[in-house]
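Example 4.3 (complexes with small molecules)
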Amino acid sequence: MNETLKTINSLRTIHGDFSSEEISSEDIETILQASIKAANASARQSYSIIVINDKEIMEKLCGYSGSRLLLYCVDYTRLSDVAIHLGFQFERKDLTGFITGSTDTILAAQTAAIAAKSMGIDSLFTNGIHRGEPNRVYELLDLPREQCFPLIALVLGYPSEKITTKKARITEGLIHYGKYKRLTAEQMDKLVQKYDDPSEQLMLTDQWKEDFEHYLDWFYVNWSQKGDTSRIDNLLKDTGFLKK
Ligand SMILES: Cc1cc2nc3c(=O)[nH]c(=O)nc-3n(C[C@H](O)[C@H](O)[C@H](O)COP(=O)(O)O)c2cc1C
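Answer. The structure with flavin mononucleotide bound is encoded below.
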């Protein structure tokens, strides 16, 4: 395995337990410069990255803190401002703009996580920014209210203790060669068992054992419908990406 594949295979999430060791400013700059090398549509780089050092602000934003938090926002403000500066108009207030912008944004964010890991720095992606009142994110960071959507937070830091466990990934029904193929009943059973196996570490909780036969029973009944999606819908409307 080459060094790049080793880095990708060693990626893992630190669920909040980062140590107090700080990442140097030089290392953060290296990570950011790698991040923005990700592919992007029409050379627009339709995102902004807010770099946060203040742990209190990190907690307020997403409920987690580490050495740094990089907030990745889908953002067309820069392009709009330059258009006005040149006497033109440019707006991407539509779903196409959001989808293309999200693609640019996520590619840059994942590239940062890989770059960080290659330097021995761990990470946590969190959508904690979407829990609670979205206004706080805008107010805390002076984000533009339109055409700017905080998509994902990437918390970076060193882990507080050595974590050796590694979450598995499902493969059943995931990669399709040539043509799409739905799972057979046998493959579905295999998938169900994989989620039930504690050594795979795919389950979010082991509480399900009290009331359910399988982890996925618990998942479909108690988890998959959880969460209020109207907050995101409203934010997409407020930022202009979705029609009101
Ligand atoms: C969109 C997104 C949101 C996530 N939000 C959280 C979160 O709020 N808290 C957390 O501990 N992990 C969060 N994660 C990390 C996942 O739990 C983690 O990637 C998954 O369990 C697989 O573990 P691994 O990254 O260690 O392989 C999030 C990941 C993604 C992609």
